[in-house]
Every structure is written in structure tokens, then in C-alpha cells.
Amino acid sequence: xxxxxxxxxxxxxxxxxxxxxxxxxxxxxxxxxxxxxxxxxxxxxxxxxxxxxxxxxxxxxxxxxxxxxxxxxxxxxxxxxxxxxxxxxxxxxxxxxxxxxxxxxxxxxxxxxxxxxxxxxxxxxxxxxxxxxxxxxxxxxxxxxxxxxxxxxxxxxxxxxxxxxxxxxxxxxxxxxxxxxxxxxxxxxxxxxxxxxxxxxxxxxxxxxxxxxxxxxxxxxxxxxxxxxx
Length: 230
Hints:
Blueprint: H1 3-23, H2 32-60, H3 64-87, H4 98-122, H5 127-157, H6 162-186, H7 192-215, H8 218-229
Helix pairs in contact: 1-4, 1-5, 2-3, 2-4, 3-4, 3-6, 4-5, 5-6, 5-7
């Protein structure tokens, strides 16, 4: 494969998934500039996270459970949560629950896309390996972003339970990311028997969260009132 072909194959899954979740916004699609900003910030997160993870490996070792839940899941999801919360959570463009999903998925897929590019160029892998990564790590990051964004949306538009959902927005992605990584680490030869049910569950649950977040949009009521007036 040529360099351009490898690069396109590595980038395409993240862009396709981001487009999919962006187009799922039924009532008020987010400014493309804001979505791209979160995506690019997600790309930049790769570098500080790589440095921190290297330090954690040296300090904590590479025990599968510790690596999966602390070195990998906790560091990556915390930085993504921190990014979305401090960059966009209080922004005026975050005006309905589904927006949390769009922005969290953008940050997650920015991170996953550069990670995928590094994998493509620094590991001996062919097109089939890149497609497998599209269905697993890249797709997994999108699912973790949906979980994070769903609870950020609930936190912003349900002030009475904001602390609870802000915690869920961080802890639940860490948990599922850890489960994902731990499964891949300990089931090297028969991983497919565990990953297919896990990914199926995460996709079904994520699509439910997408539908539920859209259904709770305040813009839905406004749109209906306008249609009645017409």
C-alpha cells in the first residue's frame, strides 16, 4: 500500500463515525467549526497521554488489569472528559442534550484517529488489520464518547443531578474502556468470542442513548410548536 492509501485507510473510520453521529443530531446540528475544534484537540491529546502512559508503565508495570483500567482507560478518558468539559460544556452552542454526544465523540475520535495513524505507520500491518481496528479500537472510542457525552448532556440540562452525571460521564467510559482493553489483553487467541458480544452491546446501548438524548431536546418542543402554528 502507498503512504497515501495507508493514511486514508487509517483516517477514514474516524471521519466516517464522526459524520454518522453528527448527522444523528435531529434538531440543531452543531457548528462544524466547533466539532472540528474538538476533533483536533482530541488529536493533540495523543501526545501528552503517550508521555504519561509511558511513565505509568515504568512506575506501575504492565499487569493486564492495571494497564487496562489505569494506564490506558483512566488516563485517556480523563483527558477527553477534561477537554470536553472545559472547552465546550459551558459554551452557548451546547444547547441540547445530544450536543454532549457530538462533542465527546469528536474528541474521542480525534484521539482514536491519530492513534490509528501511528499504528498504521509503525506496525507491520495490512489493510485487513486497519479494517479490524476500525471495527474495534476506533469504534470503541466512539462508543466511550457516546457514554461520556450522554451523561454530560444529562448533567447540563438536569441541574439537580449534575454532579452525579458529571461523575458518570467520567467513570462509565473508564469502566467500559477498561473492560474492552482487558478483554483484548487476556483473550489473545479467542478474543472474538468476547469482543463481538461486547461491541454489540455497546453499539445497541449507544444507539439507545442517541435516541434518548434526541428525544429530550428542548428544541423538539419548539419545532413541534412551530409546525402546529404553520
